[in-house]
Specification:
Layout lengths: L1 H25 L3 H8 L4 H13 L3 H5 L8 H11 L10 H27 L7 H14 L31 H14 L1 H11 L8 H18 L3 H7 L6 H22 L7 H16 L15
Length: 298
């Protein structure tokens, strides 16, 4: 109760007057102070986002809904609203533009990922079928698939004779991620597939891959991936950036699984959650950058 009251007073009263006082002393608005105090990256973008969200000015709050083609217009309005003297702070517009592209680009990425997740795999859709067959060829380049419905799908970690039933939870996002990893990191993907066939520590490659898509999706949706993307991309993050993070998860989970040496695949959820917590801890670091870095032997 006390914390709630304090938060309300801080955001509606004390924060406003503190900002006003500091501006009188420094001659700089809060956004300028953020840009001068923090280099480009997660800390700067996150503080900028909070500053805009907490502002009493509708002009500043509306900037959080900017599109790529309207960012410049929002910046012009903010410069006017905050009476920024650009001749004294020539980098202000550039710094604000980068932050707005990162913040609004993250929201757009969330929508694009969600749209792909909602697409149901349709065996009557030629593009969907072609993508599925591409996955097989990428992972099993020297093995012909006997037929579309085949027990061979189990060789790359699907549960049944028809993989379409395994995509229900993550839709086409699950398939797109599997294909991306296999296409952009072919040697790594086949190495991970080989690991998944280990006689004692083996797991279902495709099923685990779809499960890790859900992990990446939940991290994106919760906002936990903001520090990673804000450090990685000085602009709008794209679907490819999300899929490269997914590739990082697949590679790192495979290493984690074999380091932990679970007694049984029945303990998968327990170790999956342990790995999830490890990733979330990494993402709490301001300088975090989770990219796939290959071991020397691969």
């Amino acid at each position: 109760m006390f914390l709630s009251i304090w938060h309300y007073l801080h955001t509606t009263f004390f924060r406003y007057w503190l900002k006003w006082l500091i501006r009188q002393v420094t001659g700089k608005c809060e956004l300028q102070r953020i840009f001068h105090s923090f280099i480009q990256g997660a800390t700067r973008a996150i503080k900028t986002e909070y500053s805009l969200e907490a502002s009493k000015s509708k002009v500043l709050r509306d900037a959080l809904q900017a599109k790529e083609d309207t960012v410049d217009n929002h910046i012009t309005q903010i410069v006017k609203q905050k009476k920024i003297q650009l001749e004294k702070d020539a980098e202000f517009k550039v710094n604000l533009k980068v932050c707005l592209l990162q913040i609004c680009g993250y929201k757009k990425l969330m929508k694009n990922v969600e749209d792909l997740r909602k697409q149901v795999f349709d065996s009557e859709n030629d593009e969907h079928e072609a993508l599925l067959m591409k996955l097989w060829k990428l992972l099993m380049p020297n093995v012909e698939l006997d037929s579309r419905i085949s027990k061979q799908w189990g060789d790359i970690g699907f549960q049944g004779d028809d993989p379409k039933t395994d995509f229900r939870g993550m839709g086409m996002l699950g398939l797109a991620n599997l294909v991306f990893f296999s296409e952009h990191y072919p040697e790594v993907a086949r190495q991970v597939l080989s690991h998944s066939n280990h006689p004692k520590l083996g797991y279902s490659y495709a099923i685990v891959g779809i499960n890790l898509t859900e992990m990446a999706y939940s991290l994106l949706s919760s906002g936990a991936l903001k520090p990673h993307f804000y450090n990685l991309v000085p602009g709008s993050p794209q679907l490819e950036h999300f899929q490269r993070f997914y590739s990082y998860l697949v590679y790192e989970f495979d290493k984690f699984w074999f380091q932990e040496e679970p007694e049984s695949i029945m303990l998968f959820n327990q170790y999956r959650e342990k790995f999830h917590e490890k990733v979330k801890r990494l993402l709490q670091q301001p300088s975090v950058l989770l990219v796939l870095t290959l071991d020397s032997e691969i």
